[in-house]
Amino acid sequence: MSIAATSLKLPKRLKSRVERLARRSGESAHAFMVRALESQVEAEERYQAFLEDGLRADEAMQRSGLGYDADAVHAYLESRARGGKARRPRASRWRG
């Protein structure tokens, strides 16, 4: 793994919080911040991928003119979440 140095200026209150939490978890403040940054970057990457997936799905729906009734989807998901068997909703034309 190659390392790139950077400088990070923190408000004193935040730095104190980081140091306190790092001590409690038995790691250095630096390791704590690297771990926190990595976790946040991964979360943001997942969120961006989620948004892109939604945009692709919307584009496909716009092209095809097919979609799913929200009530049918919710009922399906609720049944599955309870462990029940349910038929997948069928796509239908939502525009003429």
Description:
The protein is mainly alpha-helical and 96 residues long. It folds into two domains: 14-64; 66-96, no CATH class. Helix content is 65%, strand content 4%. It has helices spanning 12-25, 29-64, 70-81; strands spanning 66-67, 92-93. Strands 1-2 form a two-stranded antiparallel sheet. The longest helix has 36 residues, at 29-64.
Give a topology summary.
Layout: H1 12-25, H2 29-64, E1 66-67, H3 70-81, E2 92-93
Antiparallel strand pairs: 1-2
Helix pairs in contact: 1-2
Instruction: Give the ordered list of helices and strands.
Output: HHEHE
User: What global shape is seen?
Assistant: elongated
Strand proportion, as a percent range, falls in under 5%
* Spatial ordering of strands, largest sheet: 1-2
Number of strands: 2
Poorly predicted sequence stretches spanning 5 or more consecutive residues: none
Main β sheet profile: 2 strands, antiparallel
Structural class: mainly alpha
Provide the gyration radius in Å: 23 Å
Number of domains: 2
Distance between the termini: 55 Å
Overall average pLDDT: 95
Number of distinct helices? 3
Helicity level, as a percent range?
55-70%
